[in-house]
Type II secretion system protein I
Amino acid sequence: MTTPRSCGFTLIEVMVALAITAIALAAGVQASNALTRNAQRQSDVLLARLCAENALVQARLAPQMPPVGDSTQVCEQANTRFDLTVSTLQTLNPNFRRVDVQVRDAAQWPVLRLSTVVGRY
């Protein structure tokens, strides 16, 4: 015969079980947030790459070599605004110029940087 005292859980056992469950749920929420941030970052990098590659192709297809110096452009992809800084540098060979494109998001955080060499035809 069991006594009423041996049935059920004590308050401490229930509190420990709740604490373990809360810790596991908090870890799950943090992992979910990390996955969401990573997906957004991948989307931003993809859109920034499109902007940067467009700027580099524009420099390559121009009838004249781009002038040495910096210029800024705004690029919008999928309703996301990016600021581009296009830097053109001389190389040791005067028939070539190096073109760097730095892409920043709306908060001015760097997202991507691409470079190419443009030659004289």
